[in-house]
Amino acid sequence: MTASACLLPGETAETAARVELECLDVPAAARESLLAELHRDTTRETPSRRRLFRLLVGRAARRRPLLLLPIVHSSSPLGVTEREAWGIVRVGPGRVRVVRASAPERAEEMSSDELAETFVEEHFA
After folding, report:
1. Is-contact 98 88, C-beta < 8 A?
2. What is the percent of the chain with per-residue pLDDT over 70, rounded to a whole number?
3. How far is CA 74 from the centre of its chain?
4. DSSP letter assigned to residue 23
5. Cα 102–chain centre separation
6. pLDDT recorded at residue 90
7. 24 CB-near residues (< 8 Å, 6+ apart)
8. CB of 71 closer than 8 Å to CB of 82
9. DSSP string, 45-99
10. Which of 6-21 are b and which e, b meaning 16 or more Cβ less than 10 Å from the residue's Cβ?
11. Which residues neighbour 103 within 8 Å (Cβ) at sequence distance 6 or greater?
12. What is the pLDDT of residue 44?
């Protein structure tokens, strides 16, 4: 398993990530938060997909409002669950106003990265 993951025998993914961050000259103060983010993303079933949300905000939402419908598939028990819909409207480069179905009067503004993190964390964590 370690060979397929490009790890040396006895090496963990976290150790490899630490070494890579050091090699990339990432400041020591920033490493722990980056490692925590990597751990969150690799342990959840659905990663945050920042690039997808940047594309949605940068291209699709530029022309029209979008409706995001989180659909969760489960195997035990077998089924599909629809969660709270979110409407997004582009308010500027890389920024959107988010309206949740449960509280349409409380719109909030966020970046595409914040949208990706928040949407995935609330619906798929």
Report:
1. yes
2. 88
3. 19
4. H
5. 21
6. 93
7. none
8. yes
9. SS---HHHHHHIIIIIHHHS-EEE--EEEEETTEEEEE---EEEEEEETTEEEEE
10. eeeeeeeeeeebbeeb
11. none
12. 63
**pLDDT value at 1 more than 50:** no
Give the pLDDT score at 96: 94
Encoded tokens for 110: 């966020």
Residue with tokens 């990706």: 116
Calculate helix-pair angle for 13-23, 28-43, nearest 10 degrees: 140
The residue extents of the domains of the chain are 13-43, 50-124
Tokens of 123: 């619906």
Q: Residue 22's Cα: distance from chain center in Å?
A: 24
* Closest C-alpha among 103, 64, 67 to residue 82: 67
